[in-house]
Each structure stands twice: as C-alpha cells, then as structure tokens.
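thought: fold this chain, then report.
action: predict
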Amino acid sequence: MKNSVRGWFVSGMLPASAGASALILAAALSFSAPVHAQQPAPAATPTATPAPVEKEKDELGKYTTADGDPIYNIQADGTLDWYTYSGYRRYHAECHVCHGPDGMGSSYAPALANSLKTMTYPQFMEIVVNGKQNIGVGTADQVMPAFGENKNVMCYLDDIYIYLKARADGALGRERPSKREDKTKAYTANENQCFGRPS
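observation:
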C-alpha cells in the first residue's frame, strides 16, 4: 500500500489539501516501520479554550502552524476557514459511518475527537493512508482500512484532519457550521488536479 501512496506524489496527483508536511510524510512512508497498536484514547474531559497558536495562511487558503502542520482558524464570530468547513463536509461524507457523527466514535471505531488530542498530523496521515489493525480491543478486533487509493479521502486529507483537530481542541462544537470563508480559486484548481478534472 505504501507504494500506491508514493504514487500519489510521484505522479504529481497531490491531494488538494497537501502541503510540505504531506511531501515529507510521503518520503518517510517508503522507509517507515510498521504502525504499532495505539493505546486507547483517554475518556473525554471538559476542554479548556485552546492556547493561541501562531498561524500562517497560504495561497490555497490553508492555515498552518509554525511546524507546517495544517490547523483550523475560527474567527470570533464563528466563521470557519474553508478547510475546517470542507473537513466537516468530507468527514460526514466518508468517515462518520464508522467513527460516528462529529468524531464521537461508535461501538467499533474510536472517537477521533478524542484521538486527535494526542495524535500528531504525521500519525494521522500514516493511519488513514495505510490503515491500522488493533487485535483484541474490547470484544472485537478493530480494523481501519487503508484509504491511500481513495481520492474522496486523499484529496481532502488535510481538510478532514483540520476539522477533527478543531473538534479535539474544543474549538468547534457538534453543531453544523453556519459561517465559512469562501473557497479560493487556487484550492479549486488543486482539487481539480487531484481528481484529474480540467481546471
């Protein structure tokens, strides 16, 4: 499966939301060790307001941290950046069947709103791209399929991560977002490239 992931990057079909961190991860995937079982995420606890994070906005409209990891930007009036809004939509289109509405988990998949409290961006990408299996968790095995060849996930990987990170940090509640920034033309062009559509 790792070879197919590298193929995304080698062929120039970068995910619409991919940034420098994704390129670094793609290179690392070809040499990475197997993913080990992760300890269950701690139970949900009331979250405090997250500490302010220095953010930069790129030409695609994506906010990133100083490390280059994608991050949400929610204005005081509740307006979401495009990536967080898109992540909400993409999560509910592709992920909520197993991981529950709003990342709250289900009887057979963990609550990602809890997992992303401690999971790093590269760890998230590794699991989504290559899948993961936890043997003997509770009464049944848990298997996360690999999505490295699914464009409906890969083209929006950063969007999904950003949405779930906002949920994990307590910056975004369970309600449907009502205000958002506009999608940039550069984002649309990159999205079209990822799907192989004409711009």
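thought: worth noting. Residues 1-14, 20-47 have pLDDT under 50 and may be disordered.
final: tokens above.
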